Amino acid sequence: MHNDNSEYKLIVILEIPKEKRVRCQYKGCLHPIYKQIHIIRYESGEISCIGSKCYSLLRESHPVTAATAPLLGDRSSVRLTEEEISLLASNTEELIKRFSSAPELNEIKHYKAGSSQLRNDKALKARALELTRQKFMTKGIDPDLPGWKGWFERETKELYEQLKKSQ
Questions:
Q1: 3-state DSSP assignment of residue 132
Q2: At residue 63, does pLDDT exceed 70?
Q3: Measured in whole angstroms, how far is the alpha carbon of residue 99 from the centre of its chain?
Q4: Residue boundaries of the structural domains of the chain
């Protein structure tokens, strides 16, 4: 069990449908949460799902750790599958493993390892576009349809920036 002085890492931020909400695990809070679910891992290895208000309290008590972005990004705009929602409640560690093996994250890890394949800007943008399109299509979303285009473009830009930083 973690204590108030435990360091932590923010793994990912999620959102689930209101009817599927889970309980906040911060210091016995237990409020139902479904928006801005912050999954964190304490230095002890314990994983907790906490709501945005409780995460703010945690950040206030750990200002150095609070400055870091989520390791697996902010996925609150991505619809989770029923299986992923079930894993959030029953096996959060497995859910994190699945997110860690997402194609776009593997791409970033690959370039951090020293690949020189996509050094020029145009190729990086094309790869980010391809990976983001693949991600949307696996979720059953056509990114070219009205209403999805802005989200698709934002996700592509974020991935491009991540790829660019990793080089």
A1: helix
A2: no
A3: 7
A4: 8-100, 103-165
Asked if 158 and 164 touch (Cβ cutoff 8 Å), the reply is no
pLDDT tens for each residue of 95-134: 888 887 765 555 444 444 344 444 567 777 877 888 888 7
User: Coil, helix or strand for 138?
Assistant: helix
Compute the mean pLDDT over every residue in the chain, rounded to the nearest whole number.
79
CA distance 67 to 69: 7
Is the pLDDT assigned to residue 62 strictly greater than 90?
Answer: no
Residues near 74 by beta carbon (within 8 Å), at least 6 away in sequence: 12, 13
- The H or E element containing residue 152 is helix 149-165
Question: Percent of the chain having pLDDT more than 90?
Answer: 23
**Cα(84)–Cα(88) distance, integer angstroms:** 6
pTM confidence score = 0.60
